[in-house]
Amino acid sequence: MSDDPFFVVKREVEQSLVQVGSLYQAWFQQLTSNTVSETDLKRQGADIRDILRNIVADLDELDETIQIVQSNPARFKLDRSHIDERKQFVQESRKKVEEMKSSVNNPSAARMGGQQGMRNNLMGSNKTRTDKYGRTEDEYKVSNQKFVEREQQQQQALMQDQDAQMSDVAVTVGNLREVARVMGSELDDQTRLLGEVETQVDSTQGRLEDGMKRMKDFIKANSDSRQQWCIAILVVILVLIIVLVLSF
Fold first, then answer.
1. Which positions fall inside the T-SNARE coiled-coil homology domain (predicted)?
2. Distance between CA atoms of 15 and 151, rounded to whole angstroms?
3. How many CB atoms lie within 10 A of CB 244?
């Protein structure tokens, strides 16, 4: 399942929703408290819209994969419940995107809902007002609060997943460290054995050199003795020849 393209894109969507959720929460708080200029709010809103567009594109891709799987679920080994879960994720994600897009595209309505909601809490007002989308101020406040809570829960879930992944990485690193230690020990043993072999080779080579030197000395000594005998024999033969010649 981890190789399923749906889950790859799903993780990207979840991470993007957490990112844009944090930006949206900061933007909404600054909007309702009037702590930043309109220029900064517009810039932040533009950043949020860019991320939302990317999320919508990813959700469109997920819809396409769902349609492909739905056309032949047996081929992909997925039952109806799995397909429904995927549809639900896309629908809920689109709802979050639309809620944020609605507020960012209409900051005046968002400010009105947020500020009026705070005034109602302080003054105990029961007046019901609606924005251009037909939402009452209380509904708008509750919707934003639910959105923030969902984003916080999702962020906590992602952090827990990351902690679990980090734990797995730590275990893997520990295993690699143990393997490296064993390999280092083996290399030390091999180095020691090679040193012993080298010492034995040097000793054997020294003995061979001594033997070769002795052999050369022996051959040289024997060679000089044969020359002397040859000269002596030749001298004797020469003397005999001279004697024979003189006798005639």
1. 156-218
2. 10
3. 9
